[in-house]
Amino acid sequence: MCATNVNEESLGSSRPADPQQPESELLRVCRIGRAQGLKGEVTVQTFTGEPERRFAAGSTLYTSDGAHTYTVAHSRTFKDRWILHFEGVANRDASEALNGLELYAQADDRDEMIEEDAWYPKDLIGLEARIADKPVNGADSGKAGALVGKVVDMIDTPGQSLLKIRLVRPMVEHADGSYVPAESANAETHAGKIEQSGSRKGKSNAKEPKIVRTALVPFVDQLVPDIDLEAGSLRLDPPCGLIPGL
């Protein structure tokens, strides 16, 4: 299982400029920044988890309406930043004119992605997160199928992608690491006062109780064994302690 193009954002269905191209979905992959040097290169802010593929020489990128295309002549990295040179952009004046332009690439074929067990974040965000029918990593089997929350974001880290899940049942974490449901007004009010007090002092006190409303789950097969887009849900098989209250 993998998250493809973790930060790419869908633009919906758009037709590329080439009339021979089939209608396809465009995904935002970069925003052009400052000109780099005098020969037409530009720096870009990336929104893709696969810059090597999206920015490879010969790749075609589109404006948001699909009306204009830019072909990558060559690309390179410098100090963790991607630098692109597009065909037809021959000097600094031409590259400066592109500053701020957002470019898009065609999305991968959905059926092929599912077959390869790869997913776009836009497909996962909004799904219900439930405990697996037969958990094996430590979750209480009596909670099989129970609703944990909803996927609200996917976070890309150097090691792996993380699903951010908004818990349907917020918890209060105490200094000893234990959790109690924040369903009661007293627990919610107490934690709220603690948070406000820490804010007024200009510092947080990690030893005080705090409300936990979200959990991060590594997006790997062992912990996310099943995804059902039609049902609008995915299954989690978390070890003890990964998700508060489970």
TrEMBL record:
Q: Which Pfam families match?
A: PRC_RimM (PF24986), RimM (PF01782)
**All copies of domain RimM N-terminal, residue ranges:** 29-108
The primary site where this protein sits is cytoplasm
Instruction: Extract the ranges annotated as region (Disordered).
Output: 1-23, 181-207
Biased-composition ranges, Polar residues, are: 1-13
Report keywords, A-Z: Chaperone, Cytoplasm, Ribosome biogenesis, rRNA processing
In terms of InterPro entries, this protein maps to:
PRC_RimM, RimM, RimM_N, RimM_N_sf, Transl_B-barrel_sf
GO BP of this protein = ribosomal small subunit biogenesis; rRNA processing
**Which ranges carry the Ribosome maturation factor RimM PRC barrel domain?**
123-242
* Any one GO cellular component localisation term in the record: ribosome
Q: Where is the signal peptide?
A: none
Functionally, this protein is described as follows: An accessory protein needed during the final step in the assembly of 30S ribosomal subunit, possibly for assembly of the head region. Essential for efficient processing of 16S rRNA. May be needed both before and after RbfA during the maturation of 16S rRNA. It has affinity for free ribosomal 30S subunits but not for 70S ribosomes.
Which family, according to UniProt?
Belongs to the RimM family.
How would you summarize the oligomeric state and partners of this protein?
Binds ribosomal protein uS19.
Q: What is known of its domains?
A: The PRC barrel domain binds ribosomal protein uS19.
Specify the protein name. Ribosome maturation factor RimM
In its UniProt entry, the species of origin is given as Bifidobacterium bohemicum DSM 22767
